[in-house]
Amino acid sequence: MLKNKPQPTRRWLDLAPGDPVIVVTGKDKGKQGEVLRTIPDKHKIVVKGVNILKRHTKAGARRGGVSVAQGGVVDFEAPLDYSNVMLVCPSCSRPTRTKHTVLESGARALVCRHCGEPYERVRKTEAQ
Ligand SMILES: [Zn+2]
Question: Coil, strand or helix: which one is 40?
């Protein structure tokens, strides 16, 4: 039982599924979308309508344990690096960096650097 593989440091991503973001770098620069899912281990996120790639699938090919009945070309959103996107503040609708704060209720929240409005959401993921 060798344990020589370094464990990836699990970092908390500020973004969660459902958050509005804008892409600030790369080929999809300027596109806005909604976070579909986050991959904290790889420091990547998937944004709706951004970084579309085409996956060519053969009929009958097995992918993820599921047999694909119909072959063809499927569009899918590829993960992009977390640092390539910025949160869009719903209060001032500008892409913003965020800082952290703790609300009076004790909940953690992000705060827009521009307008100072806290950005709240219902966290579906559990805190570590
Ligand atoms: Zn703002």
Answer: helix
